[in-house]
Amino acid sequence: MRLKDFELVINYSFKDQSHLMHAIQHKSFNKNINNERLEFLGDSILNSVIAEYLFIQFPNYQEGTLTRARATLVKGTKLTFKANQIGLDKIIKLSKGMINLSDDRKYSILEGAFEALIGAIFIDGGWKNTKKVIYKIYEDDFNNLSLDDNYKDPKSVLQEAMQAAGLSPPNYYTIEVKGKKFQSTLEVKNIKYSSTGKSKKSAETKLAESILANGDFI
Question: Is domain 3-143 classified as CATH 1.10.1520.10?
Answer without folding.
Answer: yes
